[in-house]
Design goal:
It is a single chain. The protein has 131 residues and is mostly helical. The protein contains 6 helices and no strands.
């Protein structure tokens, strides 16, 4: 999965965890009981390892009293879906194309690292050579 999608899921999970705690559910276990879900599902969603469905978001918002956040959270889930689909499209054309796109970025980073190392070396030499 793309890094952007992973980061978005982790941010969503952290937000949902905050809703759960604000609603008085001290643990994922208590929330799982209230929603009739498995504890592992709550944990995976909160830690960004599972993409919640739109129905999951609705249940979460209803259970935590955050119904006004439903539209925003559903939009985030849909955005994650779009990021995932874009990642899949990139990979369908082959990894070679994706790797070729990264070459200029890599070349610039190498050049900067080499420049930094050279500058550091020159600075040390100048310090040693001063009378």
């Amino acid at each position: 999965m793309s890094t952007q999608a992973e980061e978005a899921l982790q941010a969503l999970g952290a937000r949902l965890r905050g809703f759960r705690k604000d609603a008085g559910f001290a643990s994922g276990r208590a929330f799982a009981r209230a929603t009739s879900w498995q504890e592992s599902k709550v944990s995976r969603i909160e830690n960004g390892r599972q993409r919640p469905s739109e129905d999951d978001i609705r249940v979460w918002c209803e259970t935590t009293g955050q119904g006004d956040q439903l539209g925003d959270l559903v939009a985030i889930v849909r955005h994650v879906d779009e990021l995932w689909l874009e990642w899949r499209r990139q990979l369908q054309t082959g990894v070679e194309k994706r790797q070729r796109q990264a070459i200029p970025v890599y070349a610039v980073s190498i050049s900067r690292e080499q420049s930094s190392a050279w500058l550091s070396c020159c600075t040390r030499l100048m310090a040693v050579c001063r009378p």
